[in-house]
Amino acid sequence: MKIAVLKEQKNPEKRVALTPDVVKTLVKAGFKCHVETTAGNGSGFYDSSYVAAGAVIEKDRTSLLGDTRILLKVNAPSLEEVLLLKEGAVIISFMYAYTIPEIVEACNAKKISTFAMDAVPRISRAQKMDALSSQSNLAGYKAVLLGANALGKIFPLMMTAAGTITPARVLIFGAGVAGLQAVATAKRLGALVEVTDVRDETKEQVESLGGRFLQVQADGVQTEGGYATEVSEVYLQKQKELISKHVAEADIVITTALVIGKKAPLLITEEMVKTMKPGSVIVDMAVESGGNCELSEFNKTIIKHGITLVGEANLPALVAVNASELYAKNISTLLLHLADKEHFKWDMDDEITKGSLITHNAEIVHEFTKEILNKNKV
In Å, what is the CA distance from 242 to each residue of 17, 46, 235, 245, 246? Predict the structure, then answer.
């Protein structure tokens, strides 16, 4: 089967779905890999490396898409890309399908099957396919570096002849993959780290990394697959009361809180920002989903009330080399699970297939996506 890899059109995006090393693996497995010219340039993977790995470089994306069986991408396909694909093609990418109903409809109209990297079930045998974790891990690391760069002081305790420099205080909202990596990175740099999360079970993980867990009674919190699916207003109020003091004392606040299928919860109000020390920094990792901070702006770094607010929406793309390497292994592992060189298996009893398949045979087959889209129609 022919695989197509495109140059990502979303801005800013430097990642690519396949790297030359992974192309080599797929070619060896019998797949034909065709890569749009300069697709890997943003990650430091040039056309010549793809050719050496056995790929064919294509300059005309229209003909590339019109003659491919499988499209591998990082970001969800555009409407133009869907329309250029032939009927019955397969797309594997990040989808967040409940946010793009027009793309879902276009895929169904052409009987295009879509597998979502963001819907791969978080089970042990799917760990090598877990792109959410691989990309969030890098995002958490980069968020700390962005915060450190914007802060006008160093992280570690330093004793000098001129006096003692006290360590920076970092407050992290959310102890998922991104948050835990942020804890580890901030601790390595020498900061004092505090963490709050709606899931009490993350306390042990935070403390094992050297962070202090700020615990809120988690009544009214529902989780699914490691993510919060519902957070009560009562809980948010309790969290606000506990955290306000710690926000005011922090040098850097990093927010990672997401609620699957919904707008990111508002955790830091303008009033809370006003209480922070001048020169402090907020890195809002949830800005693409509406933001955890009331003042953060999408893809912008701004200063309000003397506080720097970093609203970088695509943190993994800032470390595109590693992000592409990990993502390529994630997506190729999923592909090799779903198909061989000649056909897809379509094993609907398989948990990974069932969990990640969004559209198939002109209908939405993913129950969560169907539920959200139906709710939005009402």
Answer: 42, 50, 11, 7, 8
